[in-house]
Amino acid sequence: MSFYRKLSFMALSTAAVALLAATPADARVDGDIITLGAALSLTGKYTTAGNHTKKGYELAIKSINAKGGVKVGGKSYKLKMKFYDDESNPARGAQLAERLIKQDGIKFMLGPYSSGLTKAIAPVTEKHKIPMVEGNGSSRSLFNKGYKYLFAVLSTANQYLEEAIPMAAEYAKMKGKKPSSVKIAMAFENDPFSQDVRLGVIEKAKKFGMKVIIDDKLPPEINDMASTLNKVRALKPDLLVVSGHSKGAALVIRQRKQMKVKVPLLAITHCESAKVNDAKKYGKGAAEGTLCATQWAPDMSYKDRVFGDAPNYTSNFKKAYGYVPPYQAAESSAAVYVYARAFEIANSFDSAKIRQALADFNEETFYGRVKFAPEGNNIAKPMVLRQIQNNKYVPVAPLNAAVGKLQIN
After folding, report:
1. What are the phi and psi torsion angles at 269 (to 5°)?
2. What pTM value is reported for the model?
3. Are strands 75-85 and 109-110 parallel, antiparallel or unpaired?
4. Taking the CB of the first residue and of the last residue of the chain, which one, N or C, has fewer CB atoms within 10 A?
5. Closest CA to 204 of 240, 172, 169
6. Contact of 57 with 38, CB cutoff 8 Å
């Protein structure tokens, strides 16, 4: 081989090696494809909500691609998702985040389901300076760590059931009593999300001078609420507040009916994902009168350029999956939408520029307005409290979102 042929061969070899070395870093923007990474709870205790999350991501990706994809630098790109099952295990979620970033070359992360999983993954994405847009981790403690690459489209957990307290005050007035006379029973799973919900309820109750007479912690693998419900039967609170994800919601609806425990007001999280108004599953009227916290509702008037309004999103989701989307699906779709817009606003795939586009983001989406505080939480969208009336979800709080009035069984 001549000197020049050897030199040419060496140059080609060096270029090939450089290309291979660059692949992991660049592999997630291949040609006209942008790959988003995620760890999802497809098995384990968060299976139900984890699958809602996955469907929300999938529908958003499909919808954005159908609208022409994401435009960056004058070129159109399609989205796709690379994901693994985290088995509802935080340690597993952190391992998978490392795998997605270091082995699969993912540069753009979507969040997992639950505050606990998000807490485990956020340090990983932060370490690698990978933006993570999430819709299912709302614990306040996520937003006091100084993270710069974490952005959450949902309201924080302490807001979830706060509005149940003014509803209880309203109930007291209906009975000719003072709000301070209200007695509250609480049962919260011992996880970051539910404990933040608890703190929000306690802080709001203090403002009304209400008394907490039951304050139970539910185990992570909750299978029975008889102990709490027996206390409720004996002490007769005016309001029972429960947060235990889908399993907790299902248990309190089922066991309250089975044990014939009566309480004027019941407020819970995860109504939709537990399908608490399913008469075949729980019995006719089992959930009637229940106050349900929601990040989003299918009849809201929020709009964006991809999904149209909330009713249109609902129609598309129902057509694809056969049921009305719970808010876990909607907020997951919103996370993808916001990420896609950040690509376009940054007009770049540079992580720092995308992070800045997210930090400056202030737009309405079908899910509600999204504007991030410096800590990464959404400060532009309120929570809604709906009451199940005649087996339908009717917004009753806050008052500016209400379409119906509080009813007492």
Report:
1. -100, 165
2. 0.78
3. unpaired
4. N
5. 169
6. yes
pLDDT reported for residue 273: 87
Range with the poorest average pLDDT among 11-15, 136-140, 149-153, 362-366: 11-15
Encode pLDDT of 307-333 as tens digits.
Answer: 999 999 999 999 999 999 999 999 999
Q: Under the phi-then-psi rule, with left for phi > 0, alpha for psi from -120 to 50, and beta for the rest, what region is 256?
A: alpha
| Alpha-carbon dihedral 55, 62, 116, 83, rounded to 10 degrees | 100
CA 45 to chain centre: 16
Beta strands in 269-312 (DSSP E): 291-294, 303-304, 308-309
Residue 36: enclosing H or E segment and its boundaries?
Answer: strand 33-40
Q: What CATH homologous superfamily does 25-155+299-371 map to?
A: Response regulator (3.40.50.2300)
Residues, the chain? 409
Residues 6+ apart with CB under 8 A from 86: 39, 40, 41, 44, 92, 93, 96, 112, 117
Weakest mean pLDDT among 8-12, 65-69, 182-186, 394-398: 8-12
Pinpoint the alpha helices (H) of 322-409: 327-346, 351-359
Can you tell me the distance from the alpha carbon of 236 to that of 29, in angstroms, rounded to the nearest whole number?
Answer: 59
pLDDT in tens, 345-375: 999 999 999 999 999 999 999 999 999 999 9
159-294+384-401 falls under which CATH superfamily? Answer: Response regulator (3.40.50.2300)
Domains 25-155+299-371 and 159-294+384-401 agree in fold: yes
